Amino acid sequence: MRPSRLLWAGAALTVIGVLAPASASGQEEPPAVMRIAPEPPQPLDISPGGAFWRALVFPGWGHAAIDSHGRGGFYFAAQTATIYTLLRTRVRLGEAQDRVRFREAILLDRLAAEGVTDFNTIQGRLNGDAALSELRNLLDARKEQQEDMVAFGIFLLFIGAADAYVSAHLARFPEPLDIGTGQGPTGPTVELALRLPIPR
């Protein structure tokens, strides 16, 4: 066989060897990828407005209606503690009022025994009594505590209702995280995709 034919045959075999893997790899199907997509959320039985009004009527009811029991338990416990503290403050306020009335009655009896009948003199003697002044200061402090607890309770009530409203809205959206696994050219791969809904 001539040397030129040998060269041509070698070149042809080389070209076939290079193209054959490329064509074979081009015919291979891409590796299968298994995706773990979150299930779509189940429709709620109530509207966000319904969750809002339920939370206003009873602490935690709005969250329980949308299966958010953890948040509902938190608001129920917080508002229950607020109501308990308010009741304790009212009891202490009543005790302070009784002590003020009792001290005023003692001073008025003393003034009546002394024959003092002038209104301004009576008021001056009452305002000048150190024990009565301390009791009145205590009464004012109890009143401020009661006002603070009422304001905080109303604030917490509306915060819980607003949170139930927002939670009911968010419960209708699917989970934004998508996980995919498969076989890549270098080995097993894991893909993470984050989906963010754009409001229309």
Question: Overview of this structure, please?
Answer:
This protein has a domain of 128 residues. It contains six helices and three strands; from the N terminus they run H-E-H-H-H-H-H-E-E. It has a three-stranded antiparallel beta sheet with strand order 1-2-3, with no helix packed on it. Strand 2 and strand 3 form a beta hairpin. Helix 2 packs antiparallel against helix 6 and helix 4 packs antiparallel against helix 6. It starts with a helix and ends in a 6-residue tail after the last strand. 10% of the residues are buried.
Terminal CA distance reads: 77 Å
Shape: rod-shaped
Average pLDDT, rounded to a whole number, is 77
Strand order of the largest sheet: 1-2-3
Number of helices: 6
Helix fraction, binned, reads 55-70%
Low-confidence stretches: 18-27, 32-37
Chain oligomer state = single chain
The main sheet comes to: 3 strands, antiparallel
Which structural class matches the secondary elements?
mainly alpha
Beta content? 5-15%
SSE succession? HEHHHHHEE
Number of strands: 3
Query: If you compute it from the alpha carbons, what radius of gyration comes out, rounded to the nearest whole angstrom?
Result: 40 Å
